[in-house]
Amino acid sequence: MSGYQCKCPQGEQVKQVKQQEQSQSIRNTEHEEYQHHLRFTLNVSKLSCKEGHSGPTHESMQAVFDLKPFRPAVNLSNPTIANISFTLYAVLGVNEKTQILTTFLWLRQFWQHEFLVWDPDECDGVTRISLPVEKLWSPDIIVYEFVDDDVSQACPYVYVNHTGHIRWDRMLRLVSSCNLEIFSFPFDMQNCSFTFGSYMHTIRDVRLSPALTFQEMSRNSKRYLEASGEWELVDLLGETSILQFGVDEWDIITFWVVIKRRPVLYVVNLLIPSSFLMLIDILSFYLPPHSVDRASFKMTLILGYTVFLLIMNDLLPSTANGTPLIGIYFSVCLALMVISLLETVIITNVLHHNSMKYKEVPNWVRVVVLKHIANLICYRWTEDVQPPTTPQKDEPEISNVDSGLWIIQPASQTPAQDPTSSRGAAALPELQQICQYLGDLHAHLTSMHKENELLDQWCHVGYVLDFLLFRIYLLLISCYALVIISMWCVWINQS
């Protein structure tokens, strides 16, 4: 047992010694590799050339290609400076529902490769060559707002200057997220940001700066973008900043692209047809209000406006955050048409009060409508006053006998002077029947006259209300149009 206890500490010491030797050998190996890499980078700091050959030799460049995994800096404590500039060539699409902006950029990047340096005098005067980009180290610069796969056409070559300055031109189809404001559609302006920065390298490794001034980039973009398309470039702004996340910091460049929509298409296809339909609805008030065609015409107009909105629905932007002002405009126009139809229904009901026979116009309606409102809207009308009829001298008189029968007597004769009075008793049944017919006719004419008077009074009430509601309708449409135009103008001026 004592021997077993003495053997254990010696075994542990042997294991610790072996682990220390292995770790020391690993550190020595890493140090030798780093020294080898440092000596190699110092040796290839300038490419070699052969007489009779233009440009650096393939062997010297192959040594540089083998260093692709390493950042091309002799002193790794010095960051690599990358310069960026782009030209906005086209705005391919704006999807308001998904809040995505699709653009096409001509992107240009510059950086310094300290291993690709040669003397033009030794290389037959060659100052610039093209090399495949896949053979060289390139900064991992991305757009932070990128939300789709990169389907841009690849540009596999770069230009390398004899001083090690690399230029990489490529085309970029950028699908980026953007907070799109569509309230003032189609007179809207959008401000979208493009943030360029390295994904992995911090400011200790890669620093970013614009290759051109922001004014030059804006001027170049306007020259290509103003030719055609739905959108035009208003301005291109930018700034450089540092993005901090935890203890690490990244150098970024943020560009703000301000674009404005050309509203001619939407004004011609949306606003003008809607204004025409509203104008026809206003002119429909000049149809006779007692005509049934007026109500059917307005119903047909509402149906046509609904079909117009369904057809033009694809042209209107839609988002979950809000509704454009033009959508509210169409909804209110449809509501005004419905109100116009309701007004026609009310006036038609007033004008057809003759179905309720012998119902006179209330006194308060006479005072309020036929007097005050009529004076307010300058409506003039005259009542039909007929003077009481008096029997003429030579007209026959109708007298009632005790038996309830009517006897017609000439005005110029008396019963004593009538030569046919002796024969009156013989014709008494026929005269009684004729008198009864005349009495029924008199009652019917009296009823018709009273009904016509009541109908005429209700017609005047309906016309006065129609004039009043028509003017209120015109006032509502005018105020609504002024409010919409003012909101659009204020929004454009603020933008």
From TrEMBL:
Reaction(s) catalysed (UniProt annotation): Na(+)(in) = Na(+)(out); K(+)(in) = K(+)(out); Ca(2+)(in) = Ca(2+)(out)
Its biological purpose: Forms serotonin (5-hydroxytryptamine/5-HT3)-activated cation-selective channel complexes, which when activated cause fast, depolarizing responses in neurons.
Annotated ranges, domain Neurotransmitter-gated ion-channel ligand-binding: 70-263
Gene Ontology CC terms: postsynaptic membrane
Protein name as catalogued: 5-hydroxytryptamine receptor 3A-like
Matches recorded under InterPro entries: LGIC_TM_5-HT3, Neur_chan_lig-bd, Neur_chan_lig-bd_sf, Neur_channel, Neuro-gated_channel_TM_sf, Neuro_actylchol_rec, Neurotrans-gated_channel_TM, Neurotransmitter_ion_chnl_CS
Transmembrane segments: 264-287, 299-316, 328-351, 472-493
Residues covered by the Neurotransmitter-gated ion-channel transmembrane domain: 270-484
Signal peptide (residue range): none
GO molecular function: extracellular ligand-gated monoatomic ion channel activity; transmembrane signaling receptor activity
Pfam families: Neur_chan_LBD, Neur_chan_memb
Coiled-coil blocks: none
Family statement: Belongs to the ligand-gated ion channel (TC 1.A.9) family.
Main localization, broad class: membrane
Keyword terms of this UniProt record: Cell membrane, Disulfide bond, Glycoprotein, Ion channel, Ion transport, Ligand-gated ion channel, Membrane, Postsynaptic cell membrane, Receptor, Signal, Synapse, Transmembrane, Transmembrane helix, Transport
The keyword Glycoprotein belongs to this UniProt entry's keyword annotation: yes
Subcellular location: Postsynaptic cell membrane
Bilayer topology annotation: Multi-pass membrane protein
SUPFAM superfamilies, per the entry: Neurotransmitter-gated ion-channel transmembrane pore, Nicotinic receptor ligand binding domain-like
Cross-referenced Gene3D superfamilies: Neurotransmitter-gated ion-channel ligand-binding domain (2.70.170.10), Neurotransmitter-gated ion-channel transmembrane domain (1.20.58.390)
Organism: Zoarces viviparus
